[in-house]
Amino acid sequence: GRSTLFSDADMTQPDDLSRKKSFFKKWKESAASDLLLMITGKGAVGNLALKNEFTTGLISMALLNMLLFVVNIIDVKYVWLGYTYRKDASLSSYVHEGAGLLILSILLAMFLLLFFFRGNLNFYKKNKYLKFGAYLWILQNAFLALSVFVRNSYYISHYGLAYKRIGLIFFLLMVMAGLFTVFIKIYNTKTSYYLLRLNAWAAILLLVFASFIDFDGAIAKYNIGKKSSVPVDVAFLLSLSDKTLPFIEANRDLIEADKSHAFYYKGNYFHSGIELLEYRERDFLEKQQQYSWLSWNMADANAKDALSPHNTFYRTSQNKN
User: Fold this and answer.
1) Mean predicted lDDT score pLDDT of the chain
2) What is the CA radius of gyration of the chain?
3) What pTM was computed for the model?
4) How far is CA 16 from the centre of its chain?
5) How many CA atoms lie within 13 Å of 8's alpha carbon, on the beta-carbon side?
6) Please, which of 1, 205, 273, 321 could form a disulfide with 255 given CB 3.0 to 4.6 Å?
7) What gap in Å lies between CA 280 and CA 261, rounded to an integer?
């Protein structure tokens, strides 16, 4: 029969946190107690353990907020207000540094917030200051994510679209969704499992949305459309999927103007971009002739209709038939 292991586990997990009376022996045996013991020493045990944990969380939130505030102020000065493009600067490193810092900050945020808001600290009477610190940190992380988005937009505006640059945009969308769900978890006193479930749904919806986008077509159209201001990587352009061939063919002059002496595609060597383009067009049209209606799809059909009148090899083969 069908396994119901995961569905049964999901059904038994509560969404809302409830206050539980923790006995000293049980608390001492937990991993959370061991971690807190490393941070606060003897403060992790005894009747004042919860209060000491609150104090530790408050100090941690304050210090990390101050650290992140300094980082965001630097971003405001050098990313939002004072950015100037220089040809000798590495925009790739510029974006990667921001993304790396964001990932580190997000990991710290998730770890600490899930740790301190995992149980009875949610019901502590004086925890409003701790919650305020958590909300402020979430807000600052969101601003940091926006700064990375701005860095990425500079990269795209000067070098065009590419897979990783698009992937970074979707990563930032998932980060924003994750920060929002953490806010919901803390504000509405939800469980960590509820947070996991909500983020899983966010990831699924984002992936479904992404499946409707023709990324290769968007890359080709954007990069060629910006050819007057963005250097077009012809080798990368000719490596995109077959459905971009009609648009590249319509901009054949761009391929002809490229002075590269060697192109490699699937282990084959080509002397020019035009030679590679015509090879790919011929290969695509020949494959389309071999397919039956079972392999039909709109993207390939549109590409075939657009390429057939322009391709010399295809017209010659049709005349022979």
Assistant:
1) 82
2) 28
3) 0.81
4) 29
5) 4
6) 273
7) 18
